[in-house]
Amino acid sequence: MCGIVGCVGAADVSRVLLSGLGKLEYRGYDSAGIAVVCDGAVDIRKSSGRLARLLAACERDGYPQGGAGIGHTRWATHGAPTDANSHPHASGDGRFAVVHNGIIENWAELRRELEAEGCRFESETDTEVIAHLVERAYEGDLLKAVMKAALRLRGSYAAAVVCADEPGRIVAVREASPLIVGIGAGENYFASDVTALVERTRSCLYLDDGEFADIRPDSVSVFDAAGRERAKEVVRVRWDVRAAEKGGYRHFMLKEIMEQPGAVEATIAPRIAAGRVCFDDEGLDDGAFCGVTRVVIAACGSSYYAGQGVRSAFERLTGVPTSVELASELRYGSTLVNASTLVIAVSQSGETADTVAALRECVCRGARTLAVVNVAGSTVARLADHAVHTWAGPEVAVATTKGYTTQLSVLYLIAVRMARALRCIGTQEEARLVRQIAALPRAIQQAIDLNPCVSELAVRYKSCPSLLFMGRGVDWAVALEGALKMKEISYIHAEAYAAGELKHGTIALVEEGQPVIALCCDERLAAKVAGNILEVKARGANVLAVACLDNQDVVALADDLLLIPPVPPMLSAAVSVVPLQLLAYHVARERGCDIDKPRNLAKSVTVE
Ligand code: M6R
C-alpha cells in the first residue's frame, strides 16, 4: 500500500525523503515521488516504476533543495501507475503539494464540484482533490487551510501538505490510516510507518483519527478538528535500524525465516517466570478472562491462519468455544459478539483495514478485546483493551514468516494464561505446557536446518502448474498457510484442503505427476493421513510429506520427506510451517520471482 514520509529542518531534505521512501518500499508500490519547498516554490519530482527511477531522475536533474519536503510511494487504486498519477499532487497554482495514503470516498463528487468552479485536474487520482481544496481554503495559514479542506473529505486518509509560502512547515492529518510523527533535534518528520523513521529518530508520537500535526523544525503541535491543542505522549521505538536491513542475506524473506528462533524466544521469554505464564506488563490478569464464554479470533491472511492454528489449543485448554473469523467477514456479518466474548484481533502490522474495522465493531458491541500485534502503537494495539506484542522486530518481506510464528507462540501462551484464570489447569500442568512452549525456538531451528534439503527439492517444483496441500486438524491450518506462502511469492496456483475432504471433490484434480504436500505432524491422525496419501498416490500423485520424526505410518509412504522434530500436536504449527516457508522461498527463487515484493501485493493492507 502507499507509503508517505516527510521531513522539515534537515540540511538535505530530499535525501532524507528518498532514504525514507527506500525503507517503505517493502509495503508494495508502483510509482514514487517527492516535493520540496524551495525559493518560494514547490519543486516536484515523480515517476512511475521503482524508486531507482526517481533516484536516477534526481541524479540527472539535481536533488531539489529546501527546508520542508514530502514523499510518497504509490500503490495504484484510482488510475494506472503513470507519472501523472504519481504523488505528490499539486494545486492548480502549484503552490501546494500533497501526499496521501488511503482512499477519498467522495472524490468523484468533489472533483465534479471543483471542475465546475474551473479547476483543471492533471491526474485521475482521488488525492488531487485535496490539493485543490487546500488551495481554495488558504488564507495565509496552512494548518487552518488543511483543517477546512478536511471537513469536505470522506474516507480514509493520512495526508500531508506543504505550501510554497510557508517553507518551514508541513501539516499532516490522519483519518483511519496510520500516521506517525518523528521527533528529532532541529528537524522533525512524519511517516506512515516507523521503519521509515528509525534511521533518524526513535522518538515518535502516534496521531489518532481526526488529529492534525503542525510540523516545524523546532516544534510539533497536534490539534483536534476543532483546533484545540492535544497533549501527546512521545513513545520510544524499540526497533533496531539494522533489523530492517538484509544483513548479507539475498532476500529479507530468507533473513526473516532464519530469525524465527530468536524472534520466538524474544516473544515468549519475557512472558514466562518460574514455570508460569505472566502477562502482568500487559495488565492481562485473571479478570481479563473470568466470565468469558466465547473466544473470537479475528484477522486476515496469515494472521487468520495463525488463529486457525491455535483454535484447538484454546478449546482444549480452556473449554471455551473458540471461533476464528476473517475480519473482512466479521465486520459486516452476524457473528455473536457480546460483553462475555473475548475478541482477539491478530495483526502483524496492526493497521490492516478490515481487522481495524472488525475490532471497532466488536468494541461497539461491548466485547472484551485483546490485540496481538507486532507494531507497538499501531491502531489495533491502541483500540483494544489489552495489547500483547510479538517481539519479531520489523518484518520487511511482504510474505510473513516470523510474524506468523511469533503470533502462534504468544497465542499459545495466552491460551495457557486463560486456562489458569478459568481454573482449567493446575500448577503442574501449566509448568509442563510452559516447558513445551519454551522448547519451540530449538525445534524451529531444527526445522530451519532442513534448508539445504528443501532447496534441492524446490528445483523439482519450480515448473509445476499447481500444488495441493493437505492435512488434518492443526496440520490443515498449516497447509492453508503453506499454500498461501507458495502462491503469493512463486505465483504457482496452490490449494489447501482438509485431508478428510479429499473424496468430496478435490481428488478429481489428482492425476499422474500432481504434486501433493501432505502435513502429518499429529501422530493421533497419522493413520488417517496415511490413508489419504495412499488415495492420491493411487491416482498418480507425487507426495512430499512434512512429518514428525517418529511418524512411521507416513514416513514409509511418501515419495519425499521433510522430517521435523517431535512437537506436541497442539504446538506443531510453529515448527511444521518452517519447511513450507522455505519451500515457497526456494521455488520462487528458482522461478526468478521478486520474492520480497511480490506483484500486486502490499505488506500492510490499509484500505478495504
Ligand atoms: O498485518 P496483518 O497481520 O494484519 O496482515 C494480514 C495479511 O495481510 C497478511 O498476513 C498477508 O496475508 C501476508 N502477506 C501473508 O504472507
Topology:
Layout: E1 3-8, H1 13-24, E2 31-38, E3 41-48, H2 51-61, E4 68-74, E5 89-90, E6 96-104, H3 107-116, H4 128-137, H5 142-150, E7 155-163, E8 166-175, E9 180-183, E10 188-191, E11 203-206, E12 211-216, E13 219-223, E14 229-230, E15 235-236, H6 252-258, H7 260-268, E16 272-273, E17 276-277, H8 286-289, E18 294-299, H9 301-318, E19 322-326, H10 327-330, E20 341-347, H11 353-364, E21 368-373, H12 379-383, E22 386-389, H13 402-421, H14 427-438, H15 440-448, H16 451-461, E23 466-471, H17 474-490, E24 493-498, E25 515-520, H18 526-537, E26 542-548, H19 552-555, E27 560-564, H20 573-590
Parallel strand pairs: 18-19, 18-20, 20-21, 21-22, 23-24, 23-25, 25-26, 26-27
Antiparallel strand pairs: 1-4, 1-10, 2-3, 2-4, 5-6, 6-7, 7-8, 8-12, 9-10, 9-11, 11-15, 12-13, 13-14, 16-17
The structure holds 5-amino-5-deoxy-1-O-phosphono-D-mannitol.
The site of 5-amino-5-deoxy-1-O-phosphono-D-mannitol has 16 residues, from helix 9 and helix 17.
